[in-house]
UniProtKB/TrEMBL annotation:
Species name: Colletotrichum spaethianum
Top-level taxon of origin: Eukaryota
Domain (Tryptophan synthase beta chain-like PALP) ranges: 14-304
Family, similarity comment: Belongs to the cysteine synthase/cystathionine beta-synthase family.
Keyword Transferase: yes
Cofactors required: pyridoxal 5'-phosphate
UniProt lineage: Eukaryota, Fungi, Dikarya, Ascomycota, Pezizomycotina
Keywords recorded for this protein, A-Z: Amino-acid biosynthesis, Cysteine biosynthesis, Pyridoxal phosphate, Transferase
Protein name: Cysteine synthase
């Protein structure tokens, strides 16, 4: 009989967050490259690594006494953070108000509502993510908070609890790759994932190369100018306050269409259904793998499941 390994039973689905597997990519990686692994964060309860962030934000606020039973939490969100916060709040008995936009995937809006969130949408005239769109979403969330002083701001873009939530991801990678990771890359929205992961990876091995990513059509970090793009969850149109230059080595930008094509390849060739930010991550990981060559290890993350994007044109 083959060895059976299964996770231990847990008392709450919150304890099912994390401990996600890493998978080596085979068919999309050209010969002569480093090994490329992706951490399947799409296997978290809501299908996104944002579950880690949401759990940390809420539980740290509880620990400090910032929220109490019956509190209302407010967040400006592109959808994945909102879905994760709605999920955590539903389990813990908090009311959650998500300020979002119709520029983001309908599946995300429906998921937030399914978990009991109150969803308020800011209209995008173009249907695209523009530099001003997220500013409008954030402004509306701030207005709600100003009108209701007792509400709690999750504030993912400024809240250092986000970094704490992702440190465990880094700790898992250290265990999963005892020989070390040569390069790690990730697209940034609030930057919590890359910063939290990098803190742990660089503490374990200072020469691990950490690369921050953004869409080429919105090169704010690489060129200092904003732009329009359609990669949800990243490139918010401002420099993320949590982005710490001491924790990364380089910033790169890649074309959105390459990211979208990579999503289609991952589905057809690797059996991994993922969103566009993951496509960008893998495009960059392959470039790093080509530069580093055989015998090296490059790791990135599958940010969320592609099931959130099936009503759009990503897989057409």
């Amino acid at each position: 009989m083959s060895e059976v390994r299964a996770p231990s039973p847990v008392d709450t689905v919150l304890n099912a967050i994390g401990n996600t597997p890493c998978v080596r990519l085979r068919r999309v990686v050209p010969e002569g490259c480093a090994d490329v692994y992706v951490k399947l964060e799409s296997l978290n309860p809501t299908g996104s690594y944002k579950d880690r962030l949401a759990k940390a934000i809420v539980e740290e606020a509880e620990r400090r006494g910032d929220i109490q039973p019956g509190s209302t939490i407010v967040e400006a969100t592109g959808g994945s953070t909102g879905s994760s916060l709605a999920f955590v709040c539903s389990l813990k008995g908090y009311k959650f108000i998500a300020v979002c936009s119709d520029a983001f995937a309908k599946e995300k809006l429906r998921t937030m509502a399914a978990f009991g969130a109150e969803v308020e949408n800011v209209h995008s005239p173009t249907g695209k993510i523009t530099p001003g769109l997220f500013a409008s979403v954030v402004k509306r969330a701030k207005t709600i908070l100003e009108e209701n002083k007792e509400y709690y701001a999750a504030d993912q873009f400024n809240n250092k609890d986000c970094i704490l939530g992702y440190k465990k991801l880094g700790e898992e990678l250290v265990v999963q790759f005892p020989q070390g990771i040569d390069a790690f890359c990730g697209a940034v929205g609030g930057a919590g994932m890359v910063m939290g992961t990098s803190k742990v990876l660089k503490a374990a091995r200072p020469d691990t190369r950490v690369v921050v990513l953004e869409p080429e059509s919105a090169p704010l970090l690489t060129q200092g100018k904003g732009g329009t793009h359609g990669i949800e969850g990243i490139g918010p149109g401002f420099v993320p306050p949590l982005l710490d230059s001491a924790l990364y080595d380089e910033i790169r930008a890649y074309p959105e269409e390459e990211a979208r094509e990579m999503c289609r390849r991952l589905a057809k060739e690797e059996g991994i259904l993922a969103g566009t930010s993951t496509g960008l991550n893998v495009v960059a990981a392959l470039a790093l793998a080509k530069e580093l060559g055989p015998g090296k290890v490059v790791v990135t993350v599958v940010c969320d499941t592609g099931l959130k994007y099936t009503s759009g044109n990503l897989y057409e």
